[in-house]
TrEMBL record:
Name of the protein in its database record: FCD domain-containing protein
Lineage: Bacteria, Pseudomonadati, Pseudomonadota, Gammaproteobacteria, Oceanospirillales
Pfam families in the record: FCD (PF07729), GntR (PF00392)
PROSITE patterns associated with the record: HTH_GNTR (PS50949)
Highest taxon of source: Bacteria
Alphabetically ordered keywords of this record: DNA-binding, Transcription, Transcription regulation
Length: 259
């Protein structure tokens, strides 16, 4: 008989200071300008050594979320300093930022600045396969429009996100197409939260359908305005005022020329 070696006991993962602080910061318990707990306090709270704490704090420093201030501790930086395109940051945003209206407002303001233009460009450049992807996503939303279970509601939101990502890709702009992958978690955050909050899911679905129809009909102006209506509906569902700085709130797009 061949002797079998005893299995080594699996070493439990150490408590994650970075996840604890990310949740506290992204949910809004620590605001920009606040100091997070000192190293020594985190060591005691998580029963780990100072080197491990510093390693986790370094992850937040590297993505611009906190700054180390000698003799004072670690301070949460302004949102403008955060590297929101870093995969770790977008993941934390998806998991932890839903209770934080300020972060939601920043994401929404960005989408209002960008997505109407993306839809307008997609109306000019979309190819047949792009239209198929947009239509399939909308059909998926239609199938789960009156979902009652949590699983069905999740599928509706997944198709909703796919709808927006397909429009980014249909722009055939390499930067916007890549941006859709990076921003997908952020888009998902607003989509899922607003879909749970909306008082009229059929009206929301109809606004999405109008975006698709404008893109399919090659009507850039109508696509721009329809995309803006979708995001204004998102703002209403979330109870958020996106602010006055959004380009889409004032720009008038020239009417589409008729042949």
């Amino acid at each position: 008989m061949t002797a079998t070696l005893p299995k080594r006991p699996v070493k439990p993962a150490r408590p994650s200071v970075v996840e604890y602080l990310a949740e506290a910061i992204f949910s809004g318990r620590y605001q920009p300008g606040d100091f997070v707990p000192k190293e020594i306090d985190l060591c005691e709270q998580f029963a780990i050594n100072r080197s491990a704490v510093r390693s986790d704090l370094r992850q937040l420093v590297d993505v611009g979320i906190i700054a180390r201030i000698s003799g004072h501790g670690s301070k949460v930086r302004d949102y403008e300093e955060w590297n929101i395109l870093d995969p770790s940051v977008t993941e934390w945003m998806t998991r932890y930022a839903s209770p934080n209206p300020r972060i939601q407002r920043e994401i929404l303001a960005f989408r209002l600045d960008v997505e109407p233009y993306v839809a307008m460009t997609a109306a000019r450049r979309a190819k047949a396969l792009d239209l198929v992807a947009i239509e399939e996503a909308l059909e998926g939303m239609s199938r789960h429009l009156h979902a009652e279970s949590a699983e069905e509601k999740q599928r509706y939101s997944d198709h909703d996100v796919a709808f927006h990502v397909a429009i980014f890709k249909a722009s055939h702009n390499i930067v916007w197409a890549q941006l859709s992958h990076i921003l997908r978690p952020s888009i998902h955050l607003l989509v899922e939260t607003s879909n749970d909050s909306t008082a009229d899911p059929e009206a929301s679905f109809e606004r999405h359908r109008q975006v698709m129809e404008a893109i399919r009909a090659r009507r850039p102006r109508e696509a721009f305005l329809a995309a803006r209506e979708v995001l204004q509906g998102t703002a209403e569902a979330l109870g958020i005022e996106p602010g006055d700085g959004t380009l889409g709130s004032w720009l008038e797009v020239a009417p589409t020329a008729t042949p």
